[in-house]
Write a structure and sequence with these properties.
The protein is of the alpha+beta class and about 120 residues long. About 15% of the residues lie in helices and about 20% in strands. The protein has 3 helices and 6 strands, in the order H-E-E-H-E-H-E-E-E. The protein has a 3-stranded antiparallel sheet. The protein has a 3-stranded antiparallel sheet with strand order 4-5-6, with helices on one face. The longest helix is centred in the middle third of the chain and has 10 residues. The protein is globular and about 60 Å long. The relative contact order is 0.11.
């Protein structure tokens, strides 16, 4: 009895077994109160936005979920100076309506919607 190939290539095999499709998937990890998700848990069309936000290979393609949600909403990668604030204080509540983009730190930082480009007059967010 012989078995044929299940996938056309190693690339397809690897993509088919990432994140929720992997037998060991348990829904991400919680680190310091924040949920980290692997890049592969998101649709492939967002990978170019999320890839620069990975914090080193040791993290195995993990990204803080609240930063990923905001980056996908904005359609761009977040800069290291941008922070995402949870309005209700619950670090696991990563709904878009609970998140607020800040330019700088949470305390003295201004909300990104308050920042207006002096050239064109558009909001940064």
């Amino acid at each position: 009895m012989t078995y044929g190939k299940l996938f056309c290539s190693n690339y397809c095999s690897g993509h088919a077994r990432h994140s929720t499709k992997h037998m060991g998937w348990r829904g991400g990890a919680i680190v310091d109160g924040y949920r980290k998700m692997t890049m592969w848990a998101y649709d492939e069309k967002y990978h170019d936005i999320l890839r620069p936000m990975i914090q080193g290979k040791a993290n195995h393609n993990y990204i803080l979920e609240h930063r990923a949600v905001m980056a996908i909403h904005l359609g761009r990668t977040l800069t290291p100076r941008e922070t995402v604030h949870h309005l209700n204080g619950d670090r696991l509540d990563n709904r878009l309506e609970n998140l607020q983009l800040h330019a700088g730190g949470h305390g003295p930082g201004a909300t990104a919607t308050a920042l207006i480009c002096p050239h064109c007059g558009k909001s940064y967010a």
